[in-house]
Amino acid sequence: MAVRLEMHVAGRIEDYALIGDMQTAALVCRDGTADWLCLPRFDSHAVFAGLLGTDEHGFWRVGPAHPEHAEPPAADRRRYRGDSLILESEWDTARGTVRVTDFMPPRDGAPQLIRIVEGVSGRVPMRSALRMRFSYGRVVPWVHKVDGRTVAVAGPDSVWLDTETETYGEDLTTYSDFTVAPGERYAFTISWQPSHHQPPALPEPEGSLEATEEFWRDWVEHCTYHGPYREAVVRSLITLKALTYAPTGGIVAAPTTSLPEEIGGVRNWDYRYTWLRDAAITLSSLLRTGYRDEARAWREWLLRAVAGDPENLQIMYGIAGERELGEAELDWLPGYENSSPVRVGNGAAHQLQLDVYGEVTEALHLAHMTGLARNDYASLLQLRLIQYLEKHWTEPDEGIWEVRGPRRHFVHSKVMAWVAVDRTIKLIESGDADGPLERWRELRDDIHRDVCDKGYDKERNTFTQSYGSRELDASLLLIPQMGFLPPDDKRVIGTIEAIQRELSTEDGFILRYPTAGEDAGVDGLAGDEGAFLACSFWMADDLAMIGRVDEARKLFERLLALRNDLGLLAEEWDPRLQRQVGNFPQAFSHVPLIDTALRLTASGAYGG
To answer: 224-261 pLDDT, tens per residue?
Structure first.
């Protein structure tokens, strides 16, 4: 029998759809190929790692049959089914139209990825090609049959394939060739199980589809936002929910690792962990749109992760609160479009980033202000964080962008230290905590004075990236949003206008800070990066705050146009290549989308 080689090549980042079960997630390309899936958790080893390598590193394609040695065709249409995470892809072929529905049911037992093929018109030849490779594509499993079910086993892991179609093995791949007619439905399910356990229960694809649709419908009904950008806001909220690890409440920054900030470059990081900063701002967006259960779960996760050791607060943790996230490189993977190295783990976990104290305190403050039930340990933690800051706020740090160059006195870090103290003073003033009020008021004034004296360039009328620097940084856009200075302060307006002049791309989006091309700049890394989408949303916010609401709306709607056809955003936008770059989808892009929509809606700054 001739070997049936698959020719799939990873798509552009925006070609992918997200499906997930709030414990892990898969990315599915336009041609019906699942190129990324870690089992059983977001941060587990990948079973499909073709996204960061080749089809030899694992994939699962379900779609119309295509000629040997040819790339599979892309779907003609795809969409999420209503306000859900159920993906529907449709192909129009010479023989008819077919639909594939992909989803992961919220977990009740073994994690499952279910794919249902449905005939729409004509008789369409179809193929499922499943190539499982464990340990990020490195390990070929033992594939065999058990009671008519196909199982792949390697070490501690097993993945079970269930389908009513005939399957066969060839070229270390499990295939199924079949034809689908109108009204016919064929289901394929893979389920993960520890290899030493009994087989997982037989799947019920149709019942699981109905339950999954009902889950998302019920969840979205809690959304309190009903403004003009509701479609974009709801899709972003669903994405944030999908990035939440349900058992603990931890929120991953993204479900992927090593999708590059520069195609072919070295800025490739593992985002499958819970950054306190990202999770805190995610919590804020969820609270503002009616989602208290998620906020409560994250607060409990935070208290467990920090435990009794706030002096050694980490900037990120594992999704269950793990502290050790050692960084390693996977040299057998060539990387997405040859962007190497591929990294797992994250060495930035033990950096000093003083701004995190501000973001966490701001999130706890918002939870308190929106009526989330009081938690005495949360208040105690807030006080302990300020006690730490009182001793350390004058130190240089690695800052919000976790630079790998020398520590600096980053202005944003100092501003967020001020935020932490300010919000804690408000907690004490409300009577819900006790603390040295006068001493901390003096501390708040000291930080404010220090920033205005040392972080502000009078000659150029702008705050700067760090004390003594002439460089700008888009994180300075948060100064008015955090209440450090009012929006109409001339120093705020000057900073906004300076960032527009010096950090804008040709198409008007915002860079985080200047990079140094081939030479390592402030971040200690060679190469460049794209426009940082969160910073571009911050600019829209600031423009609205200083009264330039029409300009803010136009920027916001241009940012919405960068989303892929399913409403998803990566971390950055490459203005040269005109494509999304960075890990995908990115919580740190979807959160400010929600916040800016809320601000523009409140101001009435929208068209139509």
So the answer is: 999 999 999 999 999 999 999 999 999 999 999 999 99
- 3-class SS of residue 400: coil
Q: Per-residue pLDDT tens for 75-112? A: 999 999 999 999 999 999 999 999 999 999 999 889 99
Whether pTM > 0.90 for this model: the answer is yes
Mean pLDDT of 315-326: 92
Q: What SS3 class is residue 606?
A: coil
Are residues 400 and 277 in contact, defined by beta-carbon separation less than 8 angstroms?
yes
CA dist 578 and 591 (Å) reads 22
What is the residue whose two structure tokens read 């379900």? 62
585 CB-contact burial (10 Å; exposed 0-12 / middle 13-18 / buried 19+): buried
348 CB-near residues (< 8 Å, 6+ apart): 269, 315, 316, 398, 402, 404
The answer to whether 136 touches 333, Cβ cutoff 8 Å, is yes
3-state SS, residue 195 = coil
Torsion of CA 179, 185, 190, 196, to 10 degrees: -100
3-state secondary structure of 404: coil
Compute the distance between CA of residue 121 and CA of residue 137 in angstroms, rounded to an integer. 37
Torsion of CA 313, 314, 316, 320, to 10 degrees: -60
Consecutive H or E run containing 280? helix 276-288
Domains of the chain: 13-195+211-218 (2.70.98.40), 222-603 (1.50.10.10)
